[in-house]
Every structure is written in C-alpha cells, then in structure tokens.
Design a protein that fits this description.
Number of strands: 0
Strand content: under 5%
Distance between the termini: 27 Å
Largest sheet: none
Oligomer: single chain
Order of helices and strands: HHHHH
Amino acid sequence: MTVKDIWELADIPVDKLTSHYNAKGDLRNLRDGIIEMKQQSRDIDFSTLSTFDLAGRNLREEVKKAEMKNWVFDLTTE
C-alpha cells in the first residue's frame, strides 16, 4: 500500500498522506476507511479518518458507527 494508491482513491494532498504514513507506518486502515466512505457516498474527511486511524481505531467500523449516528464521529466511545 503506497501513498499513490490512496491518492488515486481520494483527492487528498500527497504531503498529508506522506505525513500520515510517516506517523503510522501503514496506510491499509486509512484506505479501508476511504473505501467505506465512498461506498456510503460520503465526502472524505481526511482529518477525521487520520485522527481515528492514529488513535488505533478500525476505520471501517467507525464509519459504520457514524452512519448509524447521523454521521457523528465520536472518538471517546469504544
């Protein structure tokens, strides 16, 4: 999984993707969150997805939970 792979899925600046990769070391969870958002026809909010990914959350699950709560993302709940 490369920055280019993610960049092709969503129009996220390469420098942000590179910074996220440098902080996390992996982009698979971020890719999964972006794919889930696209499947739900939602705009990609990179800041939210990045924050949840860096906090160790499963982004597919977080997107599904947010959908059930009218697209409210809540970092405090487990």
